Amino acid sequence: MPFKHLHLETENQVGYLLLGAGTRFNKLSVTTIRELKRALGQMEQDGTINTIVISGYPGESFAVGADIGQMLHFSPTDALRFAQLGQSLFDQIESCSKPVIGALNGITMGGGCDLAMACDIRIAVDTLQIAHPGARIGIITGFCGTRKLPRIVGKNAAREIFMTSEPYTASEALRMGLVDRVHPEKDFWPMVKQFAARIAAHPAETLSTAKKVLNASEDIDLKSGCALEAALNGTLWNTRSTSNPTP
Amino acid sequence: MPQRLCKIELKEKGIAILEIPGSEATTERQLLEAIRRQITHITDTSEIKGVIVTSSDSHFCTCGIQEYHPSPYTAAELSSFGQQVTFLLEKTGKPCIAAIAGECTGVGLELALACDFIVAESSARFGFPGIEEGRLPFCGGTQRLSRLVGKSKAKEMVFGGELLSAEEGLAIGLINRLYDDNLLSHAQALLEKICTRSPLAIRIGGEVINAGYDIDLQTACMLERDAFALIFSSHDQSEGMQAFLDKRNPDFKGN
């Protein structure tokens, strides 16, 4: 089944998942979220893909939030179902066995910001504008942002971002730790591709183990985390020693 | 009891300025009691939309005559009381910014840490020098500081007792914004902008951030999902979205 709102490409073991609505703003509508889930599932199954990049189609926004016209008349239970759908996408990204890089190529707002935060690593273009403007339209986010933003940038910076609802620049985002790398517009795609290809060249099982153990570090205490690290290293060593016997 | 130990002044657009004494001769308990009364006033006064906690003195609350504690019980009791006051400050349901010039230490820093975030002028200095007399933060400061700047930075500050400069505070995320001058007018402009947003979204958002911070991701996201759904029964949601679609300014009511 073809995708209406996504373009899929593969290059150097990297799967590119590009949001492209054919308009300036890529909205996270119900259809787009469902397509993202389906495409992500396909790429996770695809043995030729070792790393996934989510981005906006070049020249457009990364992603803005939901379709406000669509949400205006939501009942509380519609809203609950919509939050559930979005959260299930972000859970899928986090549980995906392959690294997922968010390449923030332009305007990143609301649900788009939450999508970026579900990615393992965020690379931004220097013209980035990133915002969480829910309070401007009378809502909070329902896409895990209230939990993730404070963990990424600290509680106080997160409160400021939510409360002002204003856009922040690439350098502000870098200073706060909201994005990990920033590149000028002309170098952006080559740098994203180079970085993603570098990660994709590493052994798949090691990447998936690394992702699992690093994600766990956020939620569990140090001792349990260390026990998990030891157990996963044991499994990993076992896999690698049988698949690539060392001399 | 000292009269008007902390003053509160209601400016235009619902902005209240809560002034904490810089270095008045008062005990920590008297100061905390005065602050608690003002926090209750802020919470109960619907005309107050947002709060700036600051000091008109050259320092922001370096204060407090330390009380002599005849027993561990009275010391623990003062600590519980101080924690109660900072929790109340966190829970006014209104945006609250600490605006700091000069030294902000001890109870002063504890109060600043309980605000939504801190902005400062370059003269600001932050720290917990109480360690030199063998004292620790007691109004929740150890917990809030380490969550904000990380455990090792918090230890560096609490063990060492040295004061951090405003630039250092910005670098480690203790303060959000640093201004060269006109601290209060910058803080006021920022808060006025925040007060144009939905008070309901700000209040519920703040509560969900606090509730979700210390728990696991799945439970926190479920909590957020339910709060998100609740907002779709509010005036602010339908008004905010309709105004956005109509390209006009929303008329939020906070319900």
Automatic annotation (TrEMBL), chain A:
Pfam hit, one: ECH_1
Gene3D superfamilies xrefs: 2-enoyl-CoA Hydratase, Chain A, domain 1
Family annotation (InterPro entries): ClpP/crotonase-like_dom_sf, Enoyl-CoA_hyd/isom_CS, Enoyl-CoA_hydra/iso
Similarity-based family: Belongs to the enoyl-CoA hydratase/isomerase family.
PANTHER family hit by this protein: ENOYL-COA HYDRATASE, MITOCHONDRIAL, ENOYL-COA HYDRATASE-RELATED
Record's protein name: Enoyl-CoA hydratase/isomerase family protein
Species of the source: Pelotalea chapellei
Automatic annotation (TrEMBL), chain B:
Gene3D superfamilies linked to this entry: 2-enoyl-CoA Hydratase, Chain A, domain 1 (3.90.226.10), Lyase 2-enoyl-coa Hydratase, Chain A, domain 2 (1.10.12.10)
CDD domains in UniProt: crotonase-like
Superkingdom in the source lineage: Bacteria
UniProt keyword annotations, A-Z: Lyase
Pfam families: ECH_1
Keyword check for Lyase: yes
Entry similarity comment: Belongs to the enoyl-CoA hydratase/isomerase family.
Stored PANTHER family: ENOYL-COA HYDRATASE, MITOCHONDRIAL, ENOYL-COA HYDRATASE-RELATED
Protein name: Enoyl-CoA hydratase/isomerase family protein
Natural source organism: Pelotalea chapellei
Source taxonomy: Bacteria, Pseudomonadati, Thermodesulfobacteriota, Desulfuromonadia, Geobacterales
